[in-house]
Design goal:
Blueprint lengths: L1 H10 L6 H12 L4 H6 L7 H15 L4 H5 L1 E4 L2 E4 L12 H10 L6 E5 L5 H9 L4 E6 L2 H13 L5 E5 L11 E6 L21 H4 L7 H10 L3 E10 L5 H11 L1 E8 L5 E8 L5 H4 L2
Parallel strand pairs: 3-4, 3-6, 4-5, 6-7
Antiparallel strand pairs: 1-2, 7-9, 8-9
Helix pairs in contact: 1-2, 1-4, 2-4, 6-7, 10-11
The structure holds glutamine.
The site of glutamine has 9 residues, from loops.
Function: Methylates the class 1 translation termination release factors RF1/PrfA and RF2/PrfB on the glutamine residue of the universally conserved GGQ motif.
GO molecular function: nucleic acid binding; peptide chain release factor N(5)-glutamine methyltransferase activity
Protein name: Release factor glutamine methyltransferase
Length: 284
Amino acid sequence: MSWGTATLTSALPENDASALDARVLLASALQRSVTYLYTWPDKAIGSTELHRYQRYIAQRGQGTPVAYITGQRDFWSLSLQVSPATLIPRPDTETLVEQALLRLPTGPATICDLGTGTGAVALAIASERPDCQILAIDVVAEAVELANSNAQANNLTNVTVLQSSWFANIQGQQFDMLVSNPPYVENLSPYLKQGDVRFEPASALTAGSDGLDDIRYIVQHAGNYLTAQGWLLLEHGYTQGPAVRTLLQEAGFIQVSTVNDLSGQPRISGGQWCAKGQVVCRSQ
Ligand code: GLN
């Protein structure tokens, strides 16, 4: 493992997680858990596993994200398969799940996850709320397949996955909550040239010159797909909070606010739908 760490440190000097990456890749090459490595630190490694480990370290040395090499990433309490067709689930997005769970009514409710990717947000909510029905949509066929297979692997039967470009294939349906981690990076952001994001699909990352194209679209149309007082919750870039709150207010949402992620950055904004003219909304 020290060989792997040293190789990664010299290949990717800007990455400060070489030791962790080497450990996760070794565990994956051995098809064991990281705990196994701590339990049996001196165990000899077979030649098939050694070659696999060397291949993994070479791939990582070229910049490929660890999750694309192992094909797996933990999110919330779930183990998810990932592929280069989708974004790798981030810890920041767990804040979106927390905020959704805080706002869901106590009884059964319907939720739609827009742009589900691996299914991370939809599946995490589904695992906490077996009484709720979740529809997860994505425009990318491989993502739909992946989210479906992640739902099955985690035995979550209260999630349905559908291929749709945002609301295109859910016309006429209404939900108690819409959640989304849409693309929100500026098209020309220098951030796209660094680290793992270079390997992730642009379709999951970028949204116009200010990064807000998809968020604008979702906010402007969301009301048609929400029940009265239903919630819309969106992940966004850490500088986009004020713009997203303005969009929500202009579209007629109330109780608009922003919540920080685990690193203390403004990350999730949302509001409650208030169909115009409803007495219940004016009184709040
Ligand atoms: N927060 C993500 C990142 O840092 C961007 C994800 C997104 O666009 N939804 O790469």
